Amino acid sequence: MVVKLTDRSVAAAIGKAQREGKRVEVSDAKAPGLVLRASPSGSAVWVLRVQATEGGRRHFRRFKVGDYPGLGLAAAREHAGRLRLEVADGRVPSPSGGQPHRPSPWTLQSPPMLPTTWPPCERQLCVSA
User: Fold this and answer.
1) Strands 24-28 and 2-3, sheet pairing
2) What is residue 128's predicted lDDT score, i.e. its pLDDT?
3) What are all long-range contacts of 97-105, with beta carbons under 8 Å and residues at least 24 apart?
4) Is 0.90 surpassed by the pTM of this model?
């Protein structure tokens, strides 16, 4: 379900997961792709879900943003925004938080365009005598 998350709705989602004995996922309407995943044990984690299209097929991938309550709602929104920009720039964040992985099909970046004009020297055929 998609709602504008607040601290109260986060606590309610965690309580619901504990009462029902199953995982509950709540998407934030204010930060696209940000999802709170609450487990029956009472723990919760922030996840960013991104989508990429490759070969005419849509794919989804999740990136862990952080654990709740260690990472609050405002900080999770901010961190998710930075992750979203990394993915849009073609950098896939590493799970350990280190250096980003090499570009992959999960990037949202289009291929680079070739130049439309070439310098005159590159169009000439060089003949050595």
Assistant:
1) parallel
2) 47
3) 105/52, 105/54, 105/59
4) no
